[in-house]
Amino acid sequence: MYAIVTDGSISRYVNHPRAITIGDVQYPAKIFSVWTASELAAIGIIAVTFDNSNKKDEQWYINTNQTFTYNASAGTVTAAYGTATAKAHADTLWTQADSDNGDLPSDKSVGDIKDRGLKYNLIQAIKKQAAGILQDTDWYIVRKADAGTAVPSSITTHRAAVRTKAAEMETAITNASNTPALETLYTYTEQEDGSFTRPLGELPRLES
């Protein structure tokens, strides 16, 4: 990406090399590949440097739009993010202020859920994942009900372990004090044996 600097400020952007007119002169697209950075800068074309130091994982944060800054003394254009905002970790509720402002929907009351937070969505994902794992062995339970065939103890143990671990994971999510704490639960780190684990752990899988 390139910025076109005119009279000391950014006038427009070029996302991809193409023929371009600056002033009264039309330049072919090939200048972007054959000219040096200094030659391009001489006619006001500067490659944008992207600074992602403030950009955070969008699963947990809302990033700002990028701000483009031209530094005349350095001859650079930088695109940078502002401070990211953590997504709400808990549900938000309709308030009396919402009601007073006329924002409260007719089918809602003060104290009802306005928006679901990360905790709710993450717990629902755990429930769905656990249900999918249990579904693989549901046929043992159906066979037991239909034909009276005993469920193997290994299957019973596995299904209990899935439910136990799912409950532990849901509790860990519920007890997280803020969004960074939730992010930590899901962050994988490499162990001494080369494996990668996360504090939240994993739901058990049936060994084949």
Notes on the structure:
- With 208 residues, the protein is an alpha+beta fold.
- It folds into two domains: 2-85, no CATH class; 117-197.
- 35% of the residues lie in helices and 23% in strands.
- It is built from seven helices and 13 strands.
- The protein has helices at 31-34, 37-42, 96-100, 118-135, 138-147, 153-175, 179-185, and strands at residues 2-6, 9-14, 20-22, 25-27, 45-51, 61-62, 67-71, 76-80, 85-86, 92-93, 113-115, 189-190, 196-197.
- The strands form five sheets. The chain has a five-stranded mixed sheet.
- A hairpin with a 5-residue loop joins strand 12 and strand 13.
- Helix 4 (118-135) packs antiparallel against helix 6.
- The chain starts with a strand and ends in an 11-residue tail after the last strand.
- The relative contact order is 0.10.
- The model has no long low-confidence stretch (mean pLDDT 95).
Strand content: 15-25%
Quickly give the structural class.
alpha+beta
Order of helices and strands: EEEEHHEEEEEEHEHHHHEE
3D shape? elongated
Number of strands: 13
Give the overall pLDDT as a whole number.
Answer: 95
Through-space gap between termini: 50 Å
Largest beta sheet, briefly?
5 strands, mixed
The neighbouring-strand order within the major sheet is 2-1-5-8-7
Rg computed from alpha carbons, rounded to a whole number of angstroms = 28 Å
Number of helices: 7
Query: How many domains in all?
Result: 2
Percent helix, as a range, is 25-40%
Task: Identify low-pLDDT runs.
Answer: none
